[in-house]
Each structure stands twice: as structure tokens, then as C-alpha cells.
Amino acid sequence: MAVMIRNEVFSCFVFYGVLLVIKMYIIAIITGQVRLRKKAFANPEDALRHGGLQYHREDPYVERCRRAHINDMENIFPFLFLGAIYSLTGPSLPVARLHFLVFFLGRVLHTVAYLLALRAPTRSLAYTVAQIPCVSMAVQILMAVAAYA
């Protein structure tokens, strides 16, 4: 493990990866807090605990928070895989940092756009910008391992 942490590119990846995981935890907490504030519970046992079965219901803003969280999982988990492998292919630190930073900023903007219902195409542009480094990393990984396939 100590050897991996001394790899500057891998350490840079870990930094942004951990920030993204923390962001996902924050969205989960926000979703839970919105459920409590809106009294909109997904499970009957939770609704009963907080006032009755009438609160076993959906709320548009709770669903918006939940979709933002699901979208994070659909995009951040692949980034974590791609970024880890990419880090091992020997990219330069400035180029790798740019990949990780662009993805991170794109995902933060995407989340803000989702939660605040910012005007289109803000969310779509943030998604697209965040996908560019992922595609780049995937292509570079494939080029690095193609000879072994």
C-alpha cells in the first residue's frame, strides 16, 4: 500500500476519489433529511414511526434527491474503477490531475444543478463534461493493455 501512495498519480486519484465518495454520502444525508422534513417515507415502518401510513408516499423533491444520488452511483463507481487503473498506466501527473479534476467539478456541478433544478442544459452539460475524462481514461487504458488481449 505504501508503494501505491507514493505514486503521485495514484495519490491524486485517491484524493479526488475520496472527495467524490464524501459527496455521495452528503447526498445520501440530504435525501434522508429531506424525507424527514417532507414526511415522505419509502417504507411503511418508517412512516408509522414518524406519524402514520399517510406518510408512506413519494415527494417530488425527495425523488429529485434520490435520482441525484442514483446518478452519482451510475457515474462515480465507473470513474473509481477507470481512475484506479488509469493511474497504474503511467500518465503524467498534470494530465492525470486534469482528468480527475474535470470529472470532480463536472459531478459537483451536476449535483448542484440536480438539487437546485437549474435550467437546462446545465445538468446535461455537466454530465457531458464529466464523461470526457472517463472516455479518455478508458481509451488510454485499452491502448495500454491491448497488446496483452
UniProtKB/TrEMBL annotation:
Bilayer-spanning residue ranges: 13-31, 100-118, 125-148
Coiled coil ranges: none
Gene Ontology cellular component terms for the protein in this record: membrane; perinuclear region of cytoplasm
Pathway membership, UniProt: Lipid metabolism; prostaglandin biosynthesis
Subcellular location: Cytoplasm, Perinuclear region; Membrane
SUPFAM superfamilies: MAPEG domain-like (SSF161084)
InterPro entries listed in its UniProt record: MAPEG-like_dom_sf (IPR023352), Membr-assoc_MAPEG (IPR001129), MGST1-like (IPR040162)
GO molecular function, one term: glutathione transferase activity
EC code(s) of this entry: 2.5.1.18, 5.3.99.3
Reactions the enzyme catalyzes: (5S)-hydroperoxy-(6E,8Z,11Z,14Z)-eicosatetraenoate + 2 glutathione = (5S)-hydroxy-(6E,8Z,11Z,14Z)-eicosatetraenoate + glutathione disulfide + H2O; prostaglandin H2 = prostaglandin E2; 2-glyceryl-prostaglandin H2 = 2-glyceryl-prostaglandin E2; prostaglandin G2 = (15S)-15-hydroperoxy-prostaglandin E2
Top-level taxon in the UniProt lineage: Eukaryota
Membrane topology, record value: Multi-pass membrane protein
Cofactor: glutathione
Alphabetized UniProt keyword annotations: Cytoplasm, Fatty acid biosynthesis, Fatty acid metabolism, Isomerase, Lipid biosynthesis, Lipid metabolism, Membrane, Oxidoreductase, Prostaglandin biosynthesis, Prostaglandin metabolism, Transferase, Transmembrane, Transmembrane helix
Any one biological process term the GO annotation gives: prostaglandin biosynthetic process
Gene3D superfamilies cross-referenced by the UniProt entry: Membrane associated eicosanoid/glutathione metabolism-like domain (1.20.120.550)
Annotated function: Terminal enzyme of the cyclooxygenase (COX)-2-mediated prostaglandin E2 (PGE2) biosynthetic pathway. Catalyzes the glutathione-dependent oxidoreduction of prostaglandin endoperoxide H2 (PGH2) to prostaglandin E2 (PGE2) in response to inflammatory stimuli. Plays a key role in inflammation response, fever and pain. Also catalyzes the oxidoreduction of endocannabinoids into prostaglandin glycerol esters and PGG2 into 15-hydroperoxy-PGE2.
Family statement drawn from the similarity comment of this UniProt entry: Belongs to the MAPEG family.
Protein name: Prostaglandin E synthase
Source organism phylogeny: Eukaryota, Metazoa, Chordata, Craniata, Vertebrata
